[in-house]
Specification:
Elements: H1 5-15, H2 26-30, H3 37-47, H4 52-59, H5 63-77, H6 82-91
Length: 104
């Protein structure tokens, strides 16, 4: 008999007098992990079409580190190309903030 970890955790926590741990919904399981500030910077530069070498120069890191960051973003977001990251960045861009200096 196959018993999942979430089932076991729910029933063990109930036996210990603790409220059961909520089971994540499919949307929560598939939701990407929030990006770090540095990852957001890399995504923004990818959206501009920069190469790893150009990203490295902007962030003052080595080109290999830039490539590693891009590779990690591909895995974290579940994508296979830089173009997908750039498209995602445009779709998830926060709305323009009109501050007091931008009314002109």
């Amino acid at each position: 008999m196959l018993i999942t970890c979430s089932w076991r955790a729910r029933h063990l926590s109930g036996a210990l007098g603790r409220p059961p741990t909520p089971t994540p919904t499919p949307a929560e399981e598939n939701a990407p992990t929030p990006l770090t500030r540095r990852e957001q910077e890399v995504v923004a530069l990818l959206a501009l079409g920069l190469t790893n070498k150009e990203i490295a120069a902007k962030l003052v890191i080595s080109p290999r580190s830039a490539g590693t960051r891009v590779a990690n973003l591909l895995g974290k977001l579940g994508f296979t190309s830089r173009t997908q990251i750039a498209t995602w960045a445009v779709e998830h861009r926060p709305p323009n903030r009109q501050g007091p200096d931008r009314h002109r």
